[in-house]
Amino acid sequence: MEGYKQVAHQAAGHPGALVDSSSGELFAKLSCQQEIDFYTQVSAKELTDDEGHEYLGSSLYDWMPKFLGRLDQGITKDLENSSMVNQRELEQAKQDLEAMSIGEDSSSSNSPMPIGDKPYVVLQNLLFGFNKPSIIDIKLGAKLTDPKDPTISEDKHQRLAKVSTTTTSGSWNIRICGMKTFDNYPQATEAEYDQIVNDQDVSQVEDPEAPHKNYVVFNKFFGRNLTTDNIKLAFRLFFFENQLDHVRQVQVLQKMIDRLQVLHNCLIDTEARMFSSSIFMVFENDLDRWNNKEEGYEDPLIREDFEDSDDDDEEEKEEISRNKGDTAPLSSLNMIDFAHSRLAPKKGCDDNVLDGVENLLKIFEELLNDSHSFC
Ligand code: ADP
Ligand code: MN
Q1: Where are the chain's structural domains?
Q2: Which ligand ends up closest to the CA of 6?
Q3: Distance 117 CA to ligand 1 centre (A)
Q4: 3-state DSSP call for residue 206?
Q5: 133-374: CATH homologous superfamily?
Q6: Given CB 3.0 to 4.6 Å as the disulfide criterion, which of 126, 193, 341, 374 pairs with 274?
Q7: Distance in angstroms (rounded) separating the CA atoms of residues 338 and 300
Q8: pLDDT tens profile 43-78
Q9: What secondary structure does DSSP assign to 313-352, as a single string?
Q10: Ligand 1, residues 217, 280, 283: which to mutate, most atoms within 8 A of Cβ?
Q11: What ipTM, to 2 d.p.?
Q12: Where are the alpha helices (DSSP H) in 118-274?
């Protein structure tokens, strides 16, 4: 797609996700009608249902990347030819969003979809503002496919059921799908990691846009091979093998725990079924960004720095763009991947997902307790 380039860092999922090349604030990935419907419905609910929203973090909406709309590969042709600036693309995405939210029947999937031409979903880029991010994608749930989804073949149900029973998905309702860390090749650190790191599942890569920025990529087999006995070691590798000093490492982990607690409370009140969705965590390894934050600065639980500014006040826009980058947090946690999610009104909470969040919380709390021994 014109106006978009390959995303610099991806933890897992289908390769080929994109970021808009003008501002870098927008993320686009190949999606499906079900995911677009879910974003649309949760966003629409957020606009109409002010009862449910007690505080920031109490609504699923708060934990999702902001949803800008869909782009269809065919429909975008005109736009591509018009050397369009990002602002207009944003406008288009918004119009699409509006068009979809109008009418009571926004939930139905009867909008025309070109066959064999999947739509892109356009979202807030969760890596925007981070210079040297470490990222991790943790898939939630022991049931990975929706038993009520008629489009899923028996073969796929069985295949994914097997992935579940042979991994930590089945035992603890969480599985590391992939992670990418900044500059911490594990062999160089501690022999203990030998038990979880197979050379063929881990590789060192350079940031294509910034040579000499080295990352370590852990593929999906890394996460599949982990067990309940050693998954904590993988999280230790993620949070504690880097250039941050110990106090900052602990701050990041503590903030993730705080976030998971609020997310857990939110999910208790969320009536939805989210199969194969993920928790996506990011933290900054650029020491300058850490040092430049004011003394006493603390990351918010939920990032609020996404500027979906649609007013024409040029001064305000300039002000916003001057401040950009500084307003990004040093870490964040979101839920992503709603390709197999649906609302479930009056059906209660999603235990499949909640159990995963609970187990993740337990592991992180243990890790925090252990952490004084490896500073
Ligand atoms: P898939 O259907 O391919 O599994 P996901 O939604 O799980 O798609 O996303 C795949 C990967 O893309 C994630 O692991 C993450 O690295 C990245 N990603 C997803 N959403 C965003 C976002 N809003 N901003 C930045 N990166 C994202
Ligand atoms: Mn995914």
Answers
A1: 4-124, 133-374
A2: 1
A3: 19
A4: strand
A5: Inositol polyphosphate kinase (3.30.470.160)
A6: 341
A7: 24
A8: 999 988 766 578 999 999 999 999 999 998 754 444
A9: -HHHHHHHHHHTTTSS-SEEEEEE--TTEEE-TTS---HH
A10: 280
A11: 0.99
A12: 154-165, 168-172, 220-225, 231-240, 246-268
